[in-house]
Design a protein that fits this description.
This protein is mainly alpha-helical. The chain has four helices and two strands. A two-stranded antiparallel ribbon has the order 1-2.
Amino acid sequence: MRRVFWVGVGVAITVVVVVRGKRVVARLTPASVADRATARADEIGGRALQAVRDFRTEFVVARDERERELLAALLAEGQEDPEAVRRRRAAGRHTRPVADDPATDVDDVEELLGYSF
């Protein structure tokens, strides 16, 4: 996450420098030179924006792939899918029926430990 943060900081600084640079160029140079510099800055900004978009796309794909790998490695055999647990909890159902009998709901931790307080 540190690298993503510093990439973001670099992009933000680049945007600030380009915007302020355009103002300085427009103020200190003749119109034709300023037009060329502005066009070049826009071109560089477009390439930088495309690079950031490509980076984000690759990052999201790699992150999702790694998440799937970690889930596959960490879930025990027979363990419930975390997404199913999240959906159940979002719906307000914090317990899971035991032995197909909804009347015998047992807390997840209680079922795991075999006792309760």
